[in-house]
Amino acid sequence: METDFLVIGSGIAGLTFALKVAEGMPEKKITIITKTDADETNTKYAQGGIAGVWDEKNDSYEKHIEDTLIAGDGLCDQSIVEIVVKEGPERIREIIDYGAEFDKDAKGKYSLGKEGGHSENRILHHKDVTGKEIERALLDRLESMANIELINHCFVVDIITQHHLGYLVTKSTLDITCYGVYVLNKQTNQIGKILSKITVLASGGCGQAYRTTTNPKIATGDGIAMVYRAKGKIENMEFIQFHPTALYEPGVSPSFLITEAVRGDGGILRNKSGEAFMERYDERRDLAPRDIVARAIDNEMKRTGTEHVYLDCKHMDKEKFVHHFPNIYEKCVSLGIDPMHHMIPVAPAAHYSCGGVKTDEWGRTSIQNLYACGECASTGLHGANRLASNSLLEAMVFSHRCFIDSCKNVKDISFEYRIPDWKATGTSDPREMILITQSQKELTQIMSDYVGIVRTDVRLERAMKRLDLLFTETEELYRSTKVSPQLSELRNLITVGYLIVKGAQFRKESRGLHYNTDHQHKSDLLQNIIL
Fold first, then answer.
1. Which position among 290, 386, 401, 459 bears the catalytic label?
2. Does the annotation count 290 as an active-site position?
3. Whose CA is closest to 35, among 63, 64, 14?
4. Which of 350, 366, 385 is the last residue of a domain?
5. Residue 287 and residue 214 share a domain
6. Does one domain contain both 328 and 358?
7. pLDDT tens string 163-182
8. What are 130-146's pLDDT values in tens digits?
């Protein structure tokens, strides 16, 4: 199969890029591949909204930039922050033109929310299902584009580079080039190849590396792992953001998210004694940045010997709460928790990867003809900690920038026809799926117990030793059995786990989302950890 533009992933980043190319270059073919249904993405589960300077009377670019830099704890790329904040409102207007609807007040003005780390109200939202609304609008728009082909249930196994032509490719190779991908058709179980001139990675995050996560089952870090195997540059993987307030339901995965907007509207965190504890940790109390709130909750849980804290919404106006958070209200009531009469049990859960595939200001990776945008990319915006509701904004800004740059370059790129077919000779079907499922359970336990919100050098060393063993066992299985989505996802999660641990070991300080009790003082040298 040949396509001018290949998009891996169907969230806000991938769909926005594909739509822009389809409209801007109607003569070109665009192919989107996703490993499950088109709408099953991290975007769909984004509740809070999109941050953008909308109320110019009370807000400003400078305030949004400053809030982002403070949250990022010294590691943001300021030039990237300025690009995203200043270009963001125009990208939001485009998504509105595509048909996305955001909540308005009685006067018809957009209702702007406030979340942790923000100095002003600047969050546009659609009740508590903002991501789902954006995904709906983009998919509806997609149906009218004749030059876009959307392929569901197609798993990307690897990025194709010179390595597959028999050349030695290392981290030092200057001209690593992407020619397309090998894909596994989940319905036929056959592996084929898709040749592309431009490939855009929009494959999402890696929350499934942890036992408790708000991410859907598909968030297995596939894109990040594939780029690492292809010798591309990955950075800042130690910065995994734990959302402070996931609904506490033991054994349930993924965890149901209680959006930060609830605290923005007045929700108060309390411990088992009913004490509002956040004032002991930060002067911004419940609206401190997520890294601070998550660590505070983690400390309260350890101090009191409990598995969760509470979010108190009993004092909030019921009509307003139900209107703004209908899904949250319905979910809680279904469990016998009426937020107007009972406090909601919450605990932190792995939520967002601030690091990923290193890109420049146009979304270009270190591999030629390969772009990345969305959560799988490390653009420099988030630094050591993402500011709430900056992720959807980043995805839109960088999908637009990938569109601009790739359309300039596509005319000078030719297909590489020498790519060999995938060879599965000498392998057989796996006899015992438990070899895969049990290893994945072990991985999530290792990451949750040793590489969570609070870390130590000893824990990281233990995690690395155990990951080494899992890696060896899994690679032996990969060489001897036929490729399956489950085995590929396990390999990818182990690779992502390794990258998180290795980045954490290299960072000899506590900064942002990486909190190591053996290195509590920040160093004067601010640097990104590139792997």
1. 290
2. yes
3. 14
4. 350
5. no
6. no
7. 999 999 999 999 999 999 99
8. 989 999 999 999 988 99
